[in-house]
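Hey L., structure's done. Input below.
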Amino acid sequence: MIAIAAADARRFLAEEIRVSANIRSARLVEALATVPRERFLPRGPWQIRGVGDTGGPARRTDDADPRHVYHDVAIAIDADRNLYNGQPSLIARWLDELAIAPGGHVLHVGCGSGYFTSVIAHLVGPAGRVDAIDVDAELAVRARVCLSDQPWVHVRHSNGSSGLPTEVDAVVVHAGATHVVDAWLDALAEHGRLLVPLTVEFPGMPAGIGKGMMLLVTRRSGNWDARLLASLPVAIYSLKDLRDESTAAKLGQAMTTGALLRIKRVRRDSHEQAPSCIVHTSTGCLSG
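Output:
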């Protein structure tokens, strides 16, 4: 009876997300209704956080009934490290923006234990491919085991800076970055899309957690068109190894002034700072 109840709760959550988050992809809604979230989580009871949880310890579910994981809340993978399986409606909006097609090739940087990787795998289907990586070796192993029933998913341990596949249709970076890493752009096929959270770790926030907004980059004829998805604010675990704190300071200033909203492209050439430069570095910039 519990398995039936969990399946019903899963489908109800998927439909609720479709309406409340305005998800356009019917296939994404079906993926949310199909993938068993509890498979990718520690054993219950679970520690959870919702939009009303502004501080203090996470709440704990009453018991280990899998129906508890089918609410629009973040669920702890490792609460001591602030590692959570994120709020499904938020990640669903990311994936909806990418319009992932059947047969597509997606790179998922920061796959965690693999739940949202499984959702992506459902979107591309067996004719597609998902390359999933995580900087945490233990999580990469756990994701590989949990995703074993989707053999078109390939999981490995990496920080996401090198050895990436090429000609991919979409790159999803599932951790907060200070800048767009060249290797992610190089992985994209023509018209490929990169979605990455640009975040800053503000004083008073939990260790390793940053706040910011999502940047969508599209490769077009050697150019890198970009726009900020201002409707998708995010608080997320920070990317490891690849953050640059001098760039983070410039990013934070651009967020504070609102200049970040003017981004139109990513420049990868070394150039003198100009009025169009919004977050300028020695090797390129986010430009208006």
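The two ends are 56 Å apart (CA to CA). The CA atoms of residues 108 and 172 lie 5 Å apart.

-- N.
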